[in-house]
Design goal:
Layout: H1 3-18, E1 23-29, E2 32-41, H2 44-61, H3 78-84, H4 86-96, E3 101-106, E4 111-112, E5 118-127, H5 128-137
Antiparallel strand pairs: 1-2, 2-5, 3-5, 4-5
Helix pairs in contact: 3-4
Amino acid sequence: MNFKIVATAFLLFFTCATLSAQVSFVSGEKGTITVRTSGNGKGINDAIANAEKDVFYMLLFRGIAGSEQSSALITTREDEAQQKYKAYLDPLLSERYPSFIISAVQDGEPVKGKHSQYSVMLDVTVNVTALRKDMEANQVIRKFGF
């Protein structure tokens, strides 16, 4: 099979899988945003972490429709940004993201589904101002207007 076809199919599958995050705007105040998100995982803690990471993924690469942060924080193409800013993004999306979360309130009880997967719904409030300043300090994005 042609390598380009396989690579394109893999990229398309990976992109569709990452776009399945369910993140919707709830409210926003100066410098913060609250969104409702869902996450799945082998345990409840994994499901919560996955839901929270989805929020950051959407803020970084997609934006949150209906909010002041409706456009992505990173305007570079996603695949390029993930390579160019790997030293910043990998730690952010694996261990640093909780430092930007003001609150994460579980909405309802976790649901255990097929294959022992848990699903949770959360309302997550993120300090977008602090995230933006951190990204500016690490030269991932530029200050607005500069």
